Every structure is written in C-alpha cells, then in structure tokens.
Amino acid sequence: MGIILFIIIFCVVVVAHEFGHFIVAKANGIHVVEFSVGMGPTLFHVEKGGTRYAIRLLPIGGACMFEGEDGLLDQQGEGEEETGKPEREDPVDTLGKSGAFPDAPVWARIATVVAGPLFNFILAFLFSAIIVGSIGTDLPKIGQVGEGTAAEEAGLMAGDTIVALNGRKVNLFREISLEAMLNEGEAVHVVYQRNGERFSTVLIPKYSEADNRYYFGIAASPGYTKFGPIGVLQYSAYEVRYWINTTIRSLGMLFTGKAGVKDMAGPVGMADAVDTIYTESKQDGAYYVWLNMLNFAILLSANLGVLNLIPFPALDGGRLLFLIVEAIRRKPVPPEKEGIFHFVGFALLMLLMVVVLYNDITRLFAR
Questions:
Q1: DSSP per residue over 104-145, as a string?
Q2: How many CA atoms lie within 13 A of 295 on its CB side?
Q3: CA 18, CA 113: separation in Å to the nearest integer?
C-alpha cells in the first residue's frame, strides 16, 4: 500500500511540475515534443497535437521536452524508435523556425523554466489549504514550560505566544520546533506576546546528553486552531513557507557537512516513509490517512520546487542560470558548452541517485 500511495503522490507532484513547464511553454508558442512522467523505458504513450504523452517505468522523475532544447530536433531519424523521440511526418530542421525553444525570447524561456518549481509551490499551497481548512494549524502559543528549562529561565510562561525568533517572524509552532532541533547551543532572541503586550528575552538552550541535542523547554498549546476563508489562505501560505524554509535549511546542513548523503532518502526511502505514515494513521480512519498523505505531498512538492531552483547542471536552476547569463550578455552561451555542463550534471545526479538508492535499501535490510 505504501508503494501504491507513494507512486500516486509522486505522479501528482511530478505532473504538476511538468505541467507548469508545459502550459507556459504553450502560452509562449514553444512546441512541446514530449511530456513524460518517470524515466527509463516507455510503458505507455499517446500522441496528440504533435506532443507525445508518455508514462515511463521508473518513478524517479519526469520531463517536458521542448523542440530545439539541447539540440533536440522535431524530427525522426534512423534508430529514433529506440530513443523514444516522437514521430513526425514532415522531418525538418526546426532550430531556425518559430516553435523551437532557442527561438523564443529569453524572458519567455526563463518563465517556462521557472514555471515548473512555481507550480510545485502552487500545488503545495492548494494541498495546505485543504488541510488548514479541514483541521486548522498549530499556532505558536506555549502550552507548557518545563521546570528548570531554558524557557523558564528566560521568563517564558504558558499562554505566551512566540512572535519572532532571532528576528524571523514565527507563525507556526513547528517553526519553533525546527529552530530548537537545529540549534547548537546558540542564544536565541525571542519576541513574545503576553496579555496583548510584546516583550523580548534571550533564551539559552540546554543540552540533553540522552538525546544529543539542545532543547528550549516548551510544548505547544494542545489542539489546532481553525480559521475562516481569509485565515485559511493566510496560514496555507505560512505552511508552504515553512516547508520551503525547512528544505533550504536542510540543504544548508548538507553543504556545511552537518548532514551527509546517508541522511538523504530516494524513492525507496520515501515509499517506505509513506508506508509507515499509512500504517500509523489507518487506525484513525481513511480521513486521517487522506490528510497525512496530503501533508507528505506538500513536503515532497515543496522539496521538488526548491531543489529544482538550485543552480546545478541538468536541473531547472542550472538552465535558469544560463538564461540569466544570456539575458545579461544579450547573447546565448554556446550550446555545446551548455550541453557539456548539463551532461556532466546529469551523470552526477544519476550517481547520487544510485548511492541514495543503496542507502535506502541498506536501511530497509538493517531493521
């Protein structure tokens, strides 16, 4: 069941991403050669309006291929059936005609590339609105302060509402939990509200040898708070911002060495996580399974959006970097140089995927 649910969630998230590319490309007159979900051999495909729509074997990605992108011509040559490129009855060199990706204005191409991650954020927002509208959210209100904890020493009390931590505005209690989890003993400047008035204090987290981490010493106020339509939209945006911020900070831990490849999860690890969530929530009924699956989809969609904006070869962010350079220079980077850049990046991504897959499988058998 975990595998089935993960594939469904993954497909929805990937389709949203690729549809973003697709719809903006179409709006700008760029011909989409193929719209596919998954990678590897084609399981099923149909062709409509000059675009091939395909489902591929491996649920580890997707593609929206544009005419003229990376030298892709809208034609079928010898051996093309093996490569999976769509067939046309009138093969022509289209790099010089309207409809090819390189012929579109640079700002149209930038919009097309950015649209994929943007649609992931939009999907995350829509799913967040369903959850917040259904059960509400966790406001940053303190429900309990532990005796002898850092929070008590800082003067915080149950009923206080945390407004900001180190100058960053707080809207969800999870933001406080995230700050505590990532803290390494640094003092935290806290702005809080009590009885309608604002105060500030400095909190020095306390280290727990048993858990090997620092704690603030506060617990959330029990229950979730529900809102009207405006509040639902507002707090749905806060939800998306939380997951984007969590992803960015997690990436920061990877780049600074505070986390490693072993802490990453690929499709196998994510499918296992979905199965665990399903197993733990099914006893509460289908409604809570549905909400928890939506929550996982928000996490996955926000992650995909952020990751694709990283200026790394073969990702949307890498392509976006070249387009920004082109906009500044007012001439494109030589296609062969950009092609090498993306090819190397793709090879590195595949290598990383193999390593992450190995780690996922190792963790499963280590149980």
A1: S-HHHHHHHHHHHHHHHHHHHHHHHHHHHHHH-B--SBEEEE
A2: 18
A3: 10
Q: Are 54 and 36 in contact (CB under 8 A)?
A: yes
Rg (C-alpha) for the chain, rounded Å, is: 24
Task: Give pLDDT tens digits along the chain (367 positions).
Answer: 788 898 899 999 999 999 999 999 999 999 999 999 988 899 999 999 889 999 998 877 888 999 987 655 444 333 333 334 443 333 333 334 568 998 999 999 999 999 999 999 999 999 999 999 999 999 999 999 999 999 999 999 999 999 999 999 999 999 999 999 999 899 999 999 999 999 999 999 999 998 889 999 999 998 899 999 999 999 999 999 999 999 998 888 877 777 766 777 777 888 888 988 999 898 888 899 999 999 999 999 999 999 999 988 878 999 999 999 999 998 888 878 888 888 888 888 888 888 888 877 887 777 6
DSSP code, position 84: T
Which residue do the tokens 């949203």 mark? 16
* Concatenated DSSP letters of 297-355: HHHHHHHHHHHTTS--TTSHHHHHHHHHHHHHHTSPPPHHHHHHHHHHHHHHHHHHHHH
**Closest Cα to residue 9, out of 37, 35, 34?**
37
CA distances from 279 to 1, 90, 266, 276 (A): 9, 53, 20, 5
Tell me the C-alpha to C-alpha distance, in Å, between residue 154 and each of 165, 185, 187, 191: 13, 15, 11, 11
Residue pair 67/100 in contact (Cβ under 8 Å)? The answer is yes
What residues does 58 pair with on adjacent strands? 39
- Following DSSP, what letter does each residue of 216-247 receive, concatenated? --EEEPSS-B---HHHHHHHHHHHHHHHHHHH
In one-letter notation, the amino acid at residue 232 is V
Q: Which two tokens stand for residue 193?
A: 């509200």
For residue 216, give the nearest of 227, 204, 208 by alpha carbon: 204
Is position 18 annotated as part of the catalytic site? Answer: yes
